[in-house]
Amino acid sequence: MINLIAFVTMQAGWLNDLTEFIRKQVERLWTAIVEFFRDLVLYAIEQVLDLAAHALEKLPVPEFMTEYKLGTLFANAGPTIAWFVNIFKIPECMTVVSLGIVFFITRKILTLGKW
Q: Which residue, among 89, 20, 29, has the nearest Cα to 12 in the 3D structure?
């Protein structure tokens, strides 16, 4: 009787191997489907953002932005505005803000937008 149980157990090992193989294949298929849909969502978002960027690039720059410069606007503003510009150190503030923007853009370029 013991030999019969050992024989059935040895013969049933192929069934465990087969079910394990099928389980792994189903898991791989499910993982592939999940990754496909994740990539599909990312691709759709990328295409929408590229379309929005392309649409914004095609917009013309308004004339009031090309006619005037910040220095000429402050110069023609009068003595009161000149006093505020001097007291609040607007040129130094603009320098710090522009340095921050340059740092941000440089960081995005060097890390390929990851950080």
A: 20
Phi, psi (deg, nearest 5) at residue 88: -85, 0
Task: Compute how many other C-beta atoms are within 10 angstroms of the C-beta atom of residue 51.
Answer: 10
CB 73 within 8 A of CB 81: no
Cα–Cα distance measured from residue 52 to residue 69, given in angstroms and rounded to the nearest whole number: 28
pTM of the model: 0.41
Tokens read off for 87: 């007291």
CA 71 – CA 91 distance, rounded (Å): 10
User: What is the tens place of the pLDDT at every residue in 44-98?
Assistant: 999 998 998 898 888 887 777 777 777 777 777 778 887 888 888 888 888 899 9
